[in-house]
Design goal:
The structure is a single chain. This protein is α/β, with parallel strands linked by helices. The protein has a domain at about 25-120: Nucleotidyltransferase, domain 5, CATH 3.30.420. The chain is about 30% helix and about 25% strand. The protein contains three helices and five strands, in the order αβββαβαβ. A hairpin with a 4-residue loop joins strand 1 (about 25-35) and strand 2 (about 40-45). The longest helix has 17 residues, at about 70-85.
């Protein structure tokens, strides 16, 4: 009589674990999107595949507290924590948006020990974009 196959040690689970632990990322790109209501920190490899991300909302901040510099600092720390374990040493930082969390997130990234190649502001600026609404008549 054949032995039953144990479900806990299935091949599929082992393969996923090996792939996840073996991935080493020496260089990456850190994207910080700082709006007035929230700050989102996304870390990608050089090809653009997301490795780790965090936001002020996922860190437990609710309502208007999500837009604070402290919430942005916490979000950046959480996102970087997992990537440092995977071996990231160098990074480029792209900052987008007018929010209060811009500087705080950058300070947290600098404090983490990752060497920064450059910091770039990629906030979209209109070149005299949309037409304004017509003048109000009362």
């Amino acid at each position: 009589m054949a032995k039953p196959i144990p479900r806990i040690d299935s091949r599929r689970n082992e393969r996923i674990d090996l792939r996840k632990n073996a991935r080493r990322i020496p260089k990456g790109v850190i994207h910080v999107q700082a709006s007035f209501n929230n700050t989102i920190v996304t870390i990608t490899d050089v090809r653009g595949q997301v490795v780790s991300w965090s936001s002020a909302g996922t860190c437990g901040f609710k309502g208007p507290k999500r837009g604070t510099p402290f919430a942005a600092q916490t979000a950046a720390g959480n996102a970087i924590c997992t990537v440092v374990d995977q071996g990231m040493q160098r990074a480029e930082v792209m900052i987008k948006g007018p929010g209060l969390g811009r500087d705080a997130a950058l300070r947290a990234i600098r404090r983490s020990g990752i060497l920064l190649n450059f910091v770039r502001d990629i906030t979209p600026m209109p070149h005299n974009g949309c037409r304004p609404p017509k003048k109000r008549r009362v």
